[in-house]
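Quick question: what would this complex look like in 3D?
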Amino acid sequence: MSKGQVGAEQRLVTPGMVIGPASGKRAGSGTIAENNEFIATRLGWLNERNDVVSVLPINSAYMPRSGDLIIGYVAEVRNNLWFFDVNGPFQALLPMSLAPWKVEYGSTRQHLGIGDAALARIQEVDETHNMVLTMKGVGLRRLNEGAVVSIPVNLIDTLRGENNATLSRIRDATNCRIIVGDNGRVWIHGDSEDMLASRQVIQTLQQEGHKDTFETAVLALEGERGEN
Amino acid sequence: MGGYGDVKLLRDDGKRLDGRAIDEMRAVTIEAGVLPAADGSAMVTHGLNVAVAAVYGPMEAHPRKIQRQDRAVIDVRYNMAPFSTGDRIRPGFNRRSREISKVTAEALESVVLVERYPRSKIRVEIEILAAEAGTRCAGITAASVALADAGIPMRDMIVGVASGKIEDTVVLDLDKAEDNYGQADLPVGILPNTGEIAFLQMDGDLSIDEYNLAMEYNFKAAKEIHEVMADALKRRYERGDA
Amino acid sequence: MMVELVPSLLRQEINRLSAQDQRLDGRGQFEGRDVQLEVDCLYNAEGSAKVVWGDTIVFAGVKFEIRTPWPDRPTQGSLMCGAELRPVAHRKYEPGPPSPESIELGRVVDRGIRESGCIDMEKLCIVPGEKVWGVMIDIHVLSDGGNIFDAAGLAAIAALRTSIVPAERFDVGEDHTLKVNGTPIMASFKRAGGRFVYDPSEEEELGGDERIHITLGDEGHLHSLQKGLKGVFTPSEFAEILEVAETKCTELRKMVAEKERN
C-alpha cells in the first residue's frame, strides 16, 4: 500500500489546488505556501504528518539523492571512468577509483562495457544534477545474471511494504533474489519458473500501480505457490 | 479574422448557427494518460477539435547551448496533423506552428516550477488531430493535463479558452464559421486558481468594453474547463478497489 | 532518431527465455497483442482510423486533392502514403526533417497498398488530361510501444477503405465512397533471442535483431516485403513466418471488414 492510500486522509489533489490554511503547519514536498494558504504543486494524495502538509506524487521522474541504491546501465566508457544511465534526467559518473576492482588506466572496458548493469550507490549529487557513483560497499557489484523489471519510482514503497514485508512475501513465494533499486529498477534472479512468477507480480505495478491490484496479485501468488 | 461581410452568424432568435447561446462554450471532454510511451499525456476534445499532448522528461537538455544553469527549459512543439484540416497540410516547417509553440512554451514556463530542474529539458508535444477553430487553446489545456499527469510540479495549471466577436456581438468560444467570418478572436491561457493570465493573443477589432466582456466570458469558461481537467486526472487514478 | 542504450541483461534474458520457448510478456512465439480498431474517428479527414495495438497507438487520415495528371498517364490518379515519426511517439524520436525511419515506414506501407492494386488509378480520373484525384494517406504514430509497422499498415488500409471522396467540396459531382478492391495487411516479425517472433514488443525491439515485414493481399499473394536492421535469415525461417503471416493477415482482414459493416 502506498502511504497516501491508507488512513483517513485520501484526498487527491491537482496542481494549483488550495489545500487549506497554512497556520501552524509547514509546507512539505509537493506544496508551496502562498498568501497564508497551502497550494498543491503536484498531482497526488494529500498527506499530513507531524504538522507537515505534503503531496505524495502519483507519478514522478526519478530524482537521484545521495545514498540511493541504484541499478545503472553503462552508457559510455572512458579510459578512467564510466557514465551510467540511472533512469534519471542526467547520467552519473563512476570514477575508476570508486570501482570495486583495481582498475588500471585504460582498462575500464575490461570490467564494465556498454550496456552492462551494476548495483551502485549514489555518492554525491550537486544542485545542477552532477552525480558521482560508488561501487565500494557491501553488495555493490556488476550484475551478470538475472533480469531487471522497471516500476514507477513512486510505487517503490508499495513494492517494499511496511518494513519490507511485502517484498519478503514475494521473495518467499517465488524463491527469487530480489533487489529493489531506489531508481525504479528491480533486479530479480532465480529459477526460470520462479523468475516468471516474480516478474509477473512486479509487473502488475507497471500496469495498474495506482490501483489495489498489486496486493491482490501478491495474495494470488502466495495462494498458487503455497500449494506447490 | 477573415473579415465579415454578408455571412449571417446569429439567428433571429439570438442564438448562434449551431444553437449555442452567446455565452455558451462547446462541449469539452478530457482523458489523461492516453499514450503509454509518454511520461504524461492527455487527449482533449473541444467541440470538434481533437488535441493530444505528450510530456517527456525532465531530461538532460540537448544541445548544450539551450541548457540553463538555473532552471529547466520547456520545449514545446505544436503541430497540426496533415489530415487535421479541410485542405491537407504539408508536413514540415510552418510559421504559424512555430509561433504558437513559442508562446505556449513561455506560458507553461510561467507555471512549471522550472527552477527545480537546472540544465534539464521538459518536452511537451502537442498534436492536433482534428481542427475546428480553437486548436491552440485545446493544445494548452491538453499540455497542462499532460504535465500534471507526468508528475511535473506546477504552481497552477493553465486552461486554454477563447472568446470573440461576431456580428458586433461578443461570444464565447468561436467555432469554425465564426472564426472565419467573425470580427475578433481573443484566445487566452488562464490560471484557474490564481486568476492570472499566462497566454494572450488577439486579432481583429474589439472595443475596450468588448474586450472586458470577452474576458469575463473566458474566465467563466475557464472555471468550467478546469473542473473537467481535474476530473480527468482523478479518473485516471481512481482507486481500483470496487 | 536517438540511439538507445541496450542493456546486456535484457538481451541475455530474451535469449534465455527464447531457449525455453517463452517471451518477456508471456506470449507465445507467434502470439500477437490485443488489437483495437476504430474507423471514421477524425472529423476533418475523408477517411480515418485509429489502431491501438498493445502500447502502440497509430492514427491514419486520408485526404483528397484534385491535380493535373502526369502527361504520360493522362487518365490516372495517384496514391501516396506517408508517415511521420514525430517526437510525440517516443522519447527516442527527435524533431527535425523526416528521419530515414519515418520514410521507411511510409514507403513500406505505401508499397503494400499500391502494389496490391486495391486502388484502380483509372477510377481516380475526373477529366482525362486535366483533372484527377490525388489520394493521400498520412500515418501519425502517437505512441511507439513496439511494432508500429503492423499498426500503421492496418490503420492506413482501414482509413482508405472507409473513405468518402469529397466531390461536392471540389464541385465535381456527388460525394461517394472510394472504391477499394482488396485489403492488403502487414505482418511483422523480429529476431529476438535467435528466433523470429510475431508482433515484437518495445523491449523485444530494443534487445532484438533484424525484422521482416510481409504484406499479403486477399488472395494470399505477396505485395511488399522488407527486411530491416542488421542481420540475416534463412529461406526456411522465411517459409515458417510466411505461414504465420497468412493466418495473422486473414484475422486482421476480418477485423477491417467487420468495422466497415458497422
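Answer marked as accepted. The interface with chain A takes residues 39-40, 57-60, 69, 111, 113, 117-120, 147-157, 191-194, 229-230, 233-234, 236-241 of chain B (CB under 8 Å).
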